[in-house]
Amino acid sequence: MSRIAAALPSLSAAELDELADAVEALTDAIGLQRDWPANDPSDVDRAEDEASVPVLTDVDLSRGSEPDDSGDERADLHAWLAYQRHEFLRKLRDLSAEQALQWSVPPVELSVLGLVRHMRQMEAGYLAWGLSGEGARDFYGDDDFAGGSLDSVGDDIRGWLTEIKRADAAIAASPSLDARGLGHGRTLRWSLLKMLHEYTLHAGQAHMIRFAALGEMRR
């Protein structure tokens, strides 16, 4: 760095512009904040993540930690599911209701709320009903990804969180990883792996859609 600093005075204006562009591209690529110096309170890392959607006001949106390897396959699969659910939930932080609904990556008709609605259906289909055989329902039909409205935001999120509780009850009631669900006939092991796939797939989509809706890479 000292050699670079010493060379700066000898660079032309055009070369300095090229260097600035390169630094900007690098910081964008690795997700750094480049608004220096951080002398404005808004530039300082916040101690707590904010939730703009009212239903999330009392929900913990802080960063979680990956589960340790306990050696218990069932406990580990459930712990990883809980972790991925939480990471997916965090994609809603900082978003207003309007931003949660926004199709921010055109021409894709997909919003963060649409993904929440989809995961509500997945929790029901593969775990809550899939394992217990009770309460089969289709909340949105084909209108999950692209659906939702300002009036439905709270109910959609609360419905998803409620379905997680029903799913966890069904998981707890399943006698073993090899036990087959009374709804879909798949094993608990398969069902947990399927839901891990669903959450990791859609959390990645929600990650990018959230950035686009916010208009910045707010981690």
Description:
There is one protein chain. The chain has 219 residues and is mainly α. Helix content is 53%, strand content 0%. The protein contains 7 helices and no strands. Helix 3 packs parallel to helix 7 (188-214), helix 5 runs parallel beside helix 6 and helix 5 (112-132) runs antiparallel to helix 7. The chain is globular and about 65 Å long.
From the structure above, extract its key features:
219 residues; mainly alpha
Quick one: how many beta strands? Answer: 0
Give the biggest sheet.
Answer: none
pLDDT average, as an integer?
A: 82
Percent helix range: 40-55%
Runs with pLDDT <50, length 5+? Answer: 1-8, 25-50
Structural class: mainly alpha
Global morphology? globular
- Beta-strand content estimate: under 5%
Number of helices: 7
Radius of gyration: 22 Å
Q: What is the distance, rounded to the nearest whole angstrom, between the alpha carbons of the first and last residues? A: 27 Å
Order of helices and strands: HHHHHHH
Brief overview:
With 219 residues, the protein is mainly α. It is 53% helix and 0% strand.
Write the layout of secondary structure elements.
Elements lengths: L1 H6 L5 H18 L42 H17 L7 H5 L10 H21 L20 H21 L14 H27 L5
